[in-house]
Amino acid sequence: MSTGYAKEFKENSGRMSQDLTHRAVIKKALNAYEVKRDENRSKYLDWQEARQAAAEIKWEAVNHLDRYLLEMTEKLEARGTKVFWASNAEEARNYVINLSQEKKVQSIIKSKTMTSEEIHLNSALEKLGYDVIESDLGEYIVQLNEEAPYHLVFPAMHLTRGQIKEIFKKKLGSNTSDQPEELTMVARDIMRQKYLTADMGISGANFGVAETGMISITENEGNARLTTSFPKIHVALMGIEKVLPKLGDLALFLPLLATAGGGQQITCYNTMIGGPRLNDEVDGPEEFHLVLIDNRRTELLSDAEQRDALHCIRCAACLNVCPIFKSSGGHSYGTTYQGPIGSVITPHLRGLQDWKHLSLASSLCASCTDVCPVKIDIHHHLLHNRRNAVSQSPVWWEKIAFIGFTFATAIPALFQLSIKIARLLQPLHGLIKGSLIDPARAWTQTRDLPEIPAKSFRQQWKERK
Amino acid sequence: MNDSKDLILRRIREALKSPAPVPGGHDYSHAETTPTRPKPDLGSFRQFLPEVENDFNSQWSLLSKNFTALKTDFGLLDSKEELTRFVQELQRTENWKRIGYHRGGLTTPIIDSIQTEKVCVNDPYDCQDLEKCDVGISECDAIVAQTGSILITARSAGGRGLSALPPHHLILARTSQMVSDLPAAYDLLYQRYGQSYPSMISFITGPSRTGDIERIVVLGAHGPKKLTVAILKD
Fold it and tell me: If we measure between CA atoms, which residue out of A377, A116, A285, A43 comes closest to residue B161?
């Protein structure tokens, strides 16, 4: 039987795929992205070789994860960083909460981090009375609109400028036009004092560097730079799989992430942080905390077949080309990580039986695998999830149906007979097609089965001879 | 607070006991414990990243093209006098009332020639004062022709705030600081900082921007709205 999550996904995606306004907004945004992405991809001497090299580097890192994590954390600790290893979401949240209480933090400014969405950090902090503000423009808009990010990289992609203007008017009392410039400046003006007065800045990390003990943050707005410059305490959240072996590996990964993610050659700011302010430096946080988060990533790691899903650099290129994502929309998934990669990893992170339906929501067109900059075998992993879900918990009627099918097809006479019966019964099916008593209702409601021909191929073949 | 370091490392080691299929392939019939070829490194990236030619003139023309495309203003100045005039001219046209800067070989003499209120980040400074500056003037480590990026560190560019907070970031640089591509920029970081890296290193490429509203590019999201690079010939 389908779970509550599956039912929700089915209802929401069904509704969204009929929403033509939504479709037009997404189409316009993604078409512009595709043009820029292709333009910048064509500048590479060899895009395919770049992907292969990136896959090999991530393979090396993920398959020696213990070694590289130890190297990174030892280097970080030697230069004054406090590293905290969190085995699950609760440990990570509690660490940030305890730290905030201990340091008497009042206001917190955040730059974009999907890992914090994953561990539901904002709501936990807000419940305790902390003032938490998202500084990334897209994140700020969805925070004001009290919804989850729609897309890994473009959180407010589903909203039109008119809707954003209304959100700002309702929540901030601002009275601007719907020009993107004006709306952006509203957020800029509000945020500037927040950077300077917040007690804690929370960021994510796009990459970790083992060799030199650093994190690397990729962004365009400068909000992550400001978040990690002025508050006295900087906390970075990082999934354990984000580590790269060498500092120089970033010379490949920074442009790769920008091109796959935003269609850019390189994003506006790519910042590597190796600790709190050093003695000879003029400014920067007094404390730097790195929270390393497992939260069932090691479960995925133990599945050798799908281990490469941990190569993911969260560029969201697979979302941008996915026909299911484009018509269902990011919110329908009900997951932190949407789109094809989300459908692969969510069953590992949150339970296969609850989330197996996402692997079925795929046309297996393989566009996701084609664009993945680190060559994750995404569409095959959707198949692997389907297979694993069934072998773990077989569906009784499917099992019976397949036993019957195997039996009928193994005996030619029986097979011929069943075709004849089906041909006779098909017109009768028309009477109940798509109605409540139709056993195949889920399929036949919106689809027609072609009429079974009067003569089968076998019959025609025999007659010609 | 006790953390779960040992638990996580144990889980990782347990998980890695079964080898994964070869990197980037689709072949599940055999799993490898070692990759099929040595791990790609910095030098090999040039074989597939966007191409940059070796001579100064082509690199300069690529850099100019990238600067223009990404809305970075720039000037190539023949002498220190010209550089000073370039900055003074900017001050007049933009009517700077307060300047943020750090002391350095290129910055100090030029800042000294300008009569206006100043915030020097080398002395303890109040971030509210820096916020009221019309411009932040800094030096840098390198300029990357391939991407039109400026490489800065907390050591070369006056810490973290100066290059991020004021609405205009002006960088003073020398032509000899131009490097061909990102691999060359990382080589430079290795050589210059070795085992003692600054706490912050950043590649800045164009003024701050966002595309979060209908994917339309708006300059000046949170960081500088304007980025200018004044490059002295040497």
Answer: A285
Give the integer Cα–Cα distance in Å for B211 and A303.
37
How close, in Å, is residue A283 to chain B by CA atoms?
6
Look up the domain containing A278 and give its range. Answer: 56-295
Partners of B31 in beta bridges: B21
- If we measure between CA atoms, which residue out of A355, A354, A383 comes closest to residue A368? A383
Beta bridge partners of B117: B98
Q: A387 and A356 in contact (C-beta within 8 Å)?
A: no
Number of folded domains in chain B?
Answer: 1
Nearest-CA residue of chain A relative to B45?
Answer: A252
Cβ of A268 and B23 within 8 Å? no
Nearest beta carbon to residue B214 from set A60, A160, A276: A160
pLDDT of the residue at A455: 87
Is A383 found in the same domain as A413?
A: no
Cβ contact, residue pair A223, B131, below 8 Å: no
Q: What's the ipTM?
A: 0.96
- A314-333 pLDDT, tens digit each: 999 999 999 999 999 999 99
pLDDT band of A442, cuts 50, 70, 90: confident
* Contact criterion met (CB below 8 Å) for A119 and A327: no
C-alpha A28/C-alpha A259 separation (Å) is: 19
Q: Taking residues A134-144, report their average pLDDT.
A: 97
User: How far does the CA of residue B68 sit from the closest CA of chain A (Å)?
Assistant: 14
- Predicted confidence (pLDDT) per residue in A275-321, tens digit: 999 999 999 999 999 999 999 999 999 999 999 999 999 999 999 99
B149 part of contact set with chain A, CB < 8 Å: yes
Choose the closest CB to A65 out of B12, B45, B220: B12
CA distance A290 to A234: 8
Cβ neighbours of A192 in B, within 8 Å: 131, 222
Both A363 and A416 in one domain: the answer is: no
Are A257 and A142 members of one domain?
A: yes
- Count of CB contacts below 8 A, A vs B? 322
Place of tokens 């009042």: A106
**For position B143, which CATH number holds?**
3.40.50.10420
CB contact under 8 A, A55 and B189: no
